[in-house]
């Protein structure tokens, strides 16, 4: 009696173990079906996000064109933006403040990673040249990536920034930077994504130097300043110039972010479709194998009854 019970228990344990092995080694029809439904739901979300980004991109393009027209006067004082690619940053002075313009949200391709990489390259180049620099970060994604390697250089970070931005927001950011000591640096460097079209954007940087110097190097010699002193007017003009450049960078970066998100969601939807096709093929094969097995069992049972 005891031997029969032991053999029964052993067979039960072996049966359960074999079922566990089969369950782990090969997905059942139900599991594959659940994967198909989950992938379809993800595809719906990514398709919706692509359409939303496409709609937002139209507005961002309009705001960007307005910002370009508004910021034209700044190019005459500091020069046009320069591409980060192949830049040596030798023109930067001894002490600089690097402003990284990123976003608070993800799912937008390499928009934030490219800016972070550009900032790291700039910091390394300045250190190799024996120059000093600090970093101010706009956007939570940029802060999270930069603080891993250059956390000691981050003097200021601004997160949960309203998107899309406006000139009032840019003015508030510029005021925070000036209050934090941006005027004590020899130059302020803004790194951002420059929008080209819906499929292309480039990393750009602007160099904003304070209005200083004496003699022939004194700025704006052709102008008279009344009733305030020239130093006060130049300090206010420098803050206004910083505001205008930040405003243009925010608008350019917002358009690049939406275009990159639209492309990323399109690729995600395409990959989801390919995965659904693959899972459907697996599901049909598993279903066909189950039906074939059931037919074989029925035929075998019928043959056994005839015998």
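Sequence proposed for the structure above (307 residues):
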């Amino acid at each position: 009696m005891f031997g029969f019970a032991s053999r029964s228990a052993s067979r039960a344990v072996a049966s359960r173990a074999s079922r566990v092995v089969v369950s782990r080694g090969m997905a059942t029809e139900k599991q594959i079906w659940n994967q198909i439904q989950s992938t379809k739901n993800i595809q719906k979300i990514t398709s919706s996000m692509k359409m939303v980004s496409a709609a937002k991109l139209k507005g961002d393009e309009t705001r960007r064109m307005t910002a370009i027209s508004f910021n034209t006067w700044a190019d005459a004082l500091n020069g046009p933006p320069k591409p980060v690619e192949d830049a040596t940053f030798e023109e930067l002075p001894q002490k600089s403040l690097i402003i990284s313009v990123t976003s608070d949200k993800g799912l937008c391709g390499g928009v934030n990673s490219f800016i972070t990489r550009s900032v790291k390259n700039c910091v390394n180049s300045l250190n190799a040249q024996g120059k000093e620099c600090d970093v101010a970060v706009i956007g939570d994604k940029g802060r999270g990536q930069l603080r891993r390697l250059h956390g000691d250089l981050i003097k200021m970070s601004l997160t949960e920034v309203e998107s899309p931005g406006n000139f009032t927001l840019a003015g508030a950011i510029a005021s925070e930077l000036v209050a934090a000591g941006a005027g004590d640096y020899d130059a302020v460097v803004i790194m951002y994504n420059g929008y080209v079209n819906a499929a292309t954007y480039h990393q750009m940087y602007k160099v904003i130097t304070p209005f200083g110097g004496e003699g022939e190097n004194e700025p704006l010699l052709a102008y008279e300043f009344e009733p305030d002193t020239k130093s006060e007017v130049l300090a206010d003009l420098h803050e206004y110039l910083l505001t205008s450049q930040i405003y243009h960078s925010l608008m350019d970066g917002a358009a690049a972010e939406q275009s990159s998100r639209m492309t990323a969601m399109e690729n995600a939807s395409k990959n989801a479709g390919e995965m659904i096709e693959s899972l459907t093929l697996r599901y049909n094969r598993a279903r066909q194998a189950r039906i074939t097995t059931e037919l074989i069992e029925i035929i075998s049972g019928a043959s056994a009854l005839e015998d």
